[in-house]
Design goal:
three-stranded antiparallel beta sheet; 10 helices; 236 residues; single chain; mainly alpha; two-stranded antiparallel ribbon
């Protein structure tokens, strides 16, 4: 039998492993009640189920935008215990995790490696837009009927568009673009292609990047970065 270290005793070991007092138990229970419930939002299925046509006009714009990597961003399962542990160790003042092994800070380079996003270029510069501006954007650049666009903003109580309607618009424009291409109508083909791409980008960033607490819609303020599809890659 191994001998106990010098100076140790059963009494000292029992003090180290003592049961918590009733006051400590009560305090832990109170802290547990005050701790906010963490709700995970996972839109991975919405991304992976989103049809991506294998056509040159579509892939060229997506590749040129440098946002294509977001299409592969998502997860099927996650450990909620690990997620909760990280949330509890996040400090807003330092924007870092305080872990037992030390302080951990997330850098822009980490974001670039994980999400394949550009970290050089013009910074996003926007503010909230009014409902009228959102309706105009939905009609002019996403191709929705004006009455439906007005109803959409009223139903979401603001300048938003739902993922379900965005997906429907995306699929309708994709079909229309193919039909007008067969008819040889280049003007309407390009119009529907542009609407298709804008709907796809709005779905992508709303699902994978700028996730809203509603979990059902994306803010229309981001549409301004996709009006000119040739300059999407210039944004940081």
């Amino acid at each position: 039998m191994d001998e106990a270290p010098a100076g140790s005793s059963f009494g000292s070991r029992s003090r180290l492993a003592r049961a918590p007092s009733s006051r400590e138990v009560v305090r832990e229970e109170e802290e547990e009640k005050e701790r906010p419930t963490i709700k995970s939002v996972n839109h991975a299925r919405k991304i992976f189920s989103l049809f991506k046509p294998q056509t040159q006009w579509f892939n060229d714009v997506v590749s040129g935008s440098r946002l294509g990597g977001l299409y592969m961003t998502g997860y099927s399962t996650i450990s909620h215990d690990i997620q909760g542990a990280f949330v509890e160790r996040w400090h807003k003042k330092t924007s870092s995790f305080h872990l037992p092994v030390g302080e951990l800070t997330i850098t822009l380079r980490d974001v670039a490696y994980l999400l394949h996003l550009p970290i050089r270029g013009r910074l996003l510069n926007h503010s909230r837009i009014q409902r009228v501006g959102a309706i105009e954007g939905i009609v002019d650049y996403l191709g929705m009927d004006p009455n439906m666009a007005d109803y959409e903003c009223r139903a979401t109580s603001g300048a938003h568009i739902t993922f379900s309607n965005l997906k429907e618009l995306y699929e309708n424009h994709l079909v229309a673009a193919a039909e007008f291409e067969q008819e040889g109508d280049r003007l309407f083909t390009e119009y529907h292609r542009a609407c298709t791409l804008r709907c796809w980008f709005m779905l992508l960033i709303g699902i994978a990047l700028f996730v809203d607490k509603s979990k059902t819609y994306v803010d229309m303020t981001y549409l301004q970065y996709f009006i000119d599809l040739t300059t999407v890659d210039q944004w940081n």
